[in-house]
From TrEMBL:
It comes from Arcobacter cloacae. It comes from the Bacteria. Gene3D superfamilies: Nucleotidyltransferases domain 2. This is Uncharacterized protein.
């Protein structure tokens, strides 16, 4: 792939990612407002949420997952490519992404991924655990946001 092609592809992917980020930020704001009114992480209260309130939480988690997937699969490898860093395996990609301080630590990245995956497979009888995971993902907004902004800032060095 030609270097300019890679830069164009990366730019298009960032354009798409920015829409996911903006939606996530908006959902986070709605969740913050909801949290001012009630403790959504309490099982009884969660069960009394209106359908539209639960839909906000679902939409947040969907965007959160999309951003993490998109960063990992579509952005990180191209960032390294435009920077001239060769990496073929995902473990190498994540190693260099951590080394370049795009993510704060591999452990945090993996933990976000595992919690997120657990939420996708949780069932209602495990509501208590699901609510703990939900809180973790909502509390991790700034972390995923920093990964997005760090990726953007890293790319700016190479995309002119």
């Amino acid at each position: 792939m030609y270097h300019s092609d890679t830069k164009q592809i990366l730019q298009k992917r960032f354009d798409k990612l920015s829409k996911h980020y903006e939606a996530l930020r908006d959902y986070k704001s709605l969740i913050n407002n909801l949290l001012l009114e009630k403790d959504i992480y309490e099982q009884f209260i969660f069960n009394t949420l209106k359908a539209e309130e639960k839909a906000i939480l679902d939409a947040y988690l969907k965007r959160f997952s999309s951003i993490q997937d998109f960063l990992g699969a579509k952005i990180f490898p191209l960032l390294l490519d435009v920077a001239g860093i060769n990496s073929s395996k995902m473990s190498e990609v994540l190693y260099y992404i951590e080394k370049e301080e795009i993510i704060d630590s591999l452990e945090n990245w993996i933990e976000l991924r595992e919690i997120r995956n657990e939420l996708e497979h949780d069932y209602p009888e495990e509501l208590k655990e699901a609510l703990i995971d939900l809180k973790f993902c909502i509390d991790s907004f700034q972390k995923i946001e920093s990964y997005y902004f760090n990726s953007l800032n890293f790319a700016k060095k190479y995309i002119k």
